[in-house]
Design brief:
6 helices; alpha/beta; single chain; 5-stranded mixed sheet; about 45% helix; about 170 residues
Length: about 170
């Protein structure tokens, strides 16, 4: 589905906009297991606009490292809009130099619950006068293998981040 060249082009556009705005990004990854961070790290000079990535693969890491609510994980599961939004907000809260955060979680299979197989959630937050979620949605992945789904997830994460930055900058200066 998503090719590396498409993802790379989107990342270059994001980094260009972050440089233009003199802003920085932090990530909170679960199902991608650091693949989004690895993609960013391929670009020279990325440290000027990327703070790092929280890879919180297990529920307890989301709770301990990011402060995600145990009750929300129990009620909604870690693959949910509520938890993904907390990941985005908490990673931004804990990274004072960041202006943007992007969070992702999902079930890539195999052995995922049928209703959640291939389902990912993405949340984008920004720091303006306060911390706020500016984009939150889910995608149903079309790829079938776990590795292909990880790459497709990274593609969608950067598509949604690019859209959020573009929409937000065009409507309101951060």
């Amino acid at each position: 589905m998503a090719t590396n060249s498409n993802t790379d082009s989107i990342i270059q556009a994001i980094l260009h906009e972050l440089a233009y705005q003199n802003q920085r990004l932090v990530l909170a990854e679960s199902c991608t297991a650091g693949l989004a961070a690895a993609k960013l790290a391929q670009f020279a000079g990325v440290s000027n606009h990327w703070c790092g990535s929280w890879v919180t693969y297990r529920d307890q890491s989301k709770i301990d490292w990011l402060g995600v609510s145990t009750a929300d994980i129990q009620q909604h599961t870690s693959v949910s809009k509520q938890v993904t939004e907390q990941m985005a907000l908490q990673s931004l809260q804990r990274t004072a130099e960041a202006h943007w955060s992007a969070a992702i979680t999902g079930h890539l299979g195999p052995n995922a619950p049928t209703t959640l197989d291939g389902q990912i959630y993405i949340a984008i937050a920004c720091r303006n006068d306060s911390l706020q979620i500016v984009r939150s949605l889910s995608h149903q992945l079309i790829d079938n293998t776990r590795l292909d789904r990880q790459h497709e997830s990274v593609y969608w994460l950067f598509v949604e981040l690019s859209t959020a930055i573009s929409d937000f900058v065009n409507n309101t200066k951060v």
